[in-house]
Amino acid sequence: KEKVEITKEQRTLMKVIVDAYSTHQIPQDVAKKLLQEQYSADENFLLLTEMATSQVQVLVEFTKNIPGFLSLDREDQIALLKGSAVEAMFLRSAQVFSRKMPSGQTEVLEERIRKSGISEEFIIPMFNFYKSIVSLHMVQEEQALLTTITILTPDRPYVKDQQAVERIQETMLELLRKLCVLQRPQEPQYFARLLGRLTELRTLSHYHAEMLTSWRTNDHKFTPLLCEIWDVQ
Ligand SMILES: O=C(NC1CCCCC1)[C@H]([C@@H]1CCCCO1)n1c(-c2ccc(Cl)cc2)nc2cc(F)c(Cl)cc21
Prior knowledge:
Number of helices: 11
Mean pLDDT: 94
Shape: globular
Bound molecules: ligand 9MD
């Protein structure tokens, strides 16, 4: 039986990442807003673009706190952010969706999102992904590390020094692997299941431009930051 132990420096690394992750979150709670009232497709589109814009800003702040990230080549830092922002947005949406809510609220939230203006064909893959995240019952440490591992994906477009990114990502993967073994001794496959979600996340993210341009709204207005990050306009 493998004796898994978190080292002192791994514990420090974990604390830095979880603190940064919990500090840099969307200012106001989008779930609460959606539960308060039913919005029109236009209002929902505006809400999404506002939320997504502020989430990118928050993602940049979070990324600066990932040990080693700022020592990467500056252009590679940008390439990693641009390459992971959409996935980070869907992963964050899934994590918000998977939060424990008073009974019946999750169903209301799901209904509001289904009717938010998003075109039918994307609803199923999106909720399949969200529900696969819900079913993992991830703890905060796992959520923070999974987002970190997504950001540190070496094979994003235009990354020059992939080895340097791989080295930092491997540190995070090893820490997450240990956490999973310690957290779920009875589920040896749990770590593999977590990483499997990143494949589903990448597939879902391929649709993001179509999901946005096919939104049932007359005015698909995007902020300059979203035009940078999303393949739209
Ligand atoms: O604002 C959203 N997500 C933000 C993005 C930044 C991080 C925090 C969450 C959207 C909402 C959906 C209703 C209409 C208004 O937008 N959203 C999406 C979503 C994201 C991308 C596309 Cl293209 C389609 C839907 N999935 C969500 C799951 C949820 F649980 C909640 Cl609360 C909201 C969610």
